[in-house]
């Protein structure tokens, strides 16, 4: 895998969070196979409130596949 998820905290954009946790979105152990090729393997991360997120990587690294899974446009193999 040749991509990285960058998380940058934004201190100036404080919002009230109604729950005890400050987690806004969490993904655990997502994997995706297309045919015999493993595109994603055990991807886990979380987005907290007041963070800017960037997904950066080479062509063919699985960025679009991950985006499609998160958007519900395709199904993960595991996770």
Report on the architecture of this protein.
This protein is mostly beta strands. 11% of the residues lie in helices and 48% in strands. The protein has a two-stranded antiparallel ribbon with strand order 1-4. The protein is globular, with a radius of gyration of 14 Å.
Topology at a glance:
Blueprint: E1 3-9, E2 23-34, E3 37-48, E4 51-57, H1 63-71
Antiparallel strand pairs: 1-4, 2-3
> How many β-strands, per DSSP?
4
Strand order of the largest sheet: 1-4
- Which stretches are low in confidence, meaning pLDDT under 50 for 5 or more residues running? none
The helical percent reads 10-25%
**How do the helices and strands follow one another from N- to C-terminus?**
EEEEH
Beta strand %: over 45%
Task: Offer a few descriptive terms.
mainly beta; 1 helix; 79 residues; two-stranded antiparallel sheet
What would you say about this model in short?
Helix content is 11%, strand content 48%. The protein is mainly beta and 79 residues long.
